[in-house]
Structure formats: structure tokens, C-alpha cells
Design goal:
Blueprint (H helix, E strand, L loop, with lengths): L1 E2 L6 H17 L16 H8 L4 H11 L4 H14 L3 H5 L3 H8 L5 H18 L8 H5 L6 H12 L8 H10 L2 E2 L3 H11 L5 H14 L27
Antiparallel strand pairs: 1-2
Helix pairs in contact: 1-12, 2-3, 2-4, 3-4, 3-9, 6-7, 10-11, 10-12
């Protein structure tokens, strides 16, 4: 794992990404010509807004989101939270019912079992409240660093860097870091990315990865941060 010794102009990079996202919001049908219409925000961010930063809602939607498309995550999260808006109500549901509500999210049976266990732990150990520390969140079944960071940033407004496949891929492609795993990317980004941008970088890069900076043949001709990109691993682009 390595960090890039020459730091980019972070203010300019983030400003360009934020301006691009703003334009996408204002003209969602155009979608910048890259991926067609769709939501302008990751599903977990949408849930966070809809449920007024409720930690339980954010934890549930983040677990559902693992290896699941945003559109499915949003629909499933809303359905489950309507039925179980708190740990007590979810814990009272049979695991088969939870699994039915979580379907068709990926690994829905495993996620249902984890959510049931988490609800019981929150009731028994945390007075039904979602804990607000990395260590306590990681101790919950099915919660990894990505989930924990999203809960800390979205629910509690704490500093954290949520690294998913988009953030991991784009950070390496840009040349910000040289790392093999999302966990290594998180550690490397903490060393180079100014802390003021930690919380927001996930939402920016996830959307950018979905619309422009694709895994294969990215839209480099439309990239708003191309002057800052080393284009590592890019063999073909549009």
C-alpha cells in the first residue's frame, strides 16, 4: 500500500466533482450523456435524508446495500423500515419474514439473519440505540468497515472515509493511492486526503464511478477531473 507523494489540488478536484454532481441534479434526464436517467445520490444517502439521519434506518439500509444495486437497496430498505422502523419491531419478526422483505437484495437470507441478531444486540446492550463508535459497530454481525464508516458519517456526522468498490478503484486509477484492498485504500486516503473531505468523498466518487469513471472503458472524454488523473490501468476509454 502506497500513497501518492505528489498531492493533487484537493480543493479543485472536489470542487469539480461537486459542480458535476450539481449539474446532474439539475438535469437528471440528460445524465451527462453517460448512463441515462437514475438517482443522483447513493441509496443509503437517500435513506438518510428520508429518515432524518436515523441511525437505525441508515444501519439497515447500509447492510442491505452490500453487493446490491442502489435501486433495489432503496426499495427494499423502505419496505423493511416501514414494517420495522426500530430494532424492537424487527426483532419481533420471524427471520423468514425479514428475508422476504429483504429480497431481492443480494444474500438476502444472510442479511436477514444479521439484522435479526443486530436488533437483539441493540435491545440487550444498547437500549435499542445504534452505537456511535467504530469498535462497537464492527462488533455487530455483518458489519464491516464500509458499513461502520457510512453509519458514523451519515447518522452521527462523524469523520470517516467509506471505501467501496468505486472509491477503491477510482482512488487507484487517479493515482491518489496504490493499494490492493478497500481497507488499505481507506488507510492510505486517511494519510493524504484532507479531513474536511473525508465524509463527502464516498458520495462523490460512487456517483462518478456509476456515471463516468466506469471499471471498463470509462468516459475519459467527459471527465471533469482528467487533468488530475494518472489513468492507471485504463487501457481503453471513451
Amino acid at each position: 500500500m502506497k500513497t501518492n507523494p505528489t498531492s493533487p489540488s484537493w480543493d479543485q478536484v472536489v470542487a469539480a466533482l461537486e459542480a458535476w454532481r450539481k449539474a446532474l441534479r439539475e438535469e437528471p434526464a440528460r445524465g451527462q450523456g453517460a448512463a441515462g436517467p437514475g438517482s443522483e445520490e447513493p441509496a443509503v444517502s437517500t435513506v438518510a435524508e428520508q429518515y432524518k439521519r436515523d441511525p437505525w434506518a441508515i444501519l439497515v439500509s447500509t447492510i442491505i446495500s452490500l453487493r446490491t444495486k442502489d435501486a433495489v437497496t432503496l426499495t427494499v430498505s423502505q419496505a423493511l423500515l416501514q414494517k420495522a422502523p426500530n430494532p424492537v419491531l424487527l426483532e419481533a419478526l420471524p427471520v423468514e419474514e425479514v428475508a422476504r422483505l429483504v429480497y431481492p437484495a443480494g444474500f438476502y437470507r444472510t442479511k436477514a439473519a444479521s439484522l435479526k441478531k443486530i436488533a437483539g444486540i441493540l435491545i440487550e446492550q444498547y437500549q435499542q440505540q445504534v452505537p456511535a463508535t467504530m469498535e462497537e459497530l464492527l462488533a455487530l454481525p455483518g458489519v464491516g468497515r464500509k458499513t461502520a464508516n457510512l453509519v458514523l458519517t451519515e447518522a452521527f456526522d462523524l469523520d470517516g472515509i467509506c471505501v467501496d468498490i468505486h472509491v477503491h478503484r477510482i482512488s487507484n486509477r487517479l493515482g491518489w493511492v496504490t493499494s490492493s484492498t478497500p481497507e488499505q485504500t481507506e488507510t492510505a486516503l486517511r494519510a493524504v486526503l484532507p479531513q474536511q473531505y473525508w465524509k463527502g468523498i464516498n458520495a462523490l466518487l460512487v456517483l462518478y464511478g456509476q456515471r463516468l469513471c466506469r471499471p471498463v472503458s470509462p468516459f475519459c472524454s467527459r471527465c471533469v477531473i482528467r487533468p488530475y488523473c494518472k489513468r492507471r490501468g485504463v487501457e481503453r476509454s471513451r
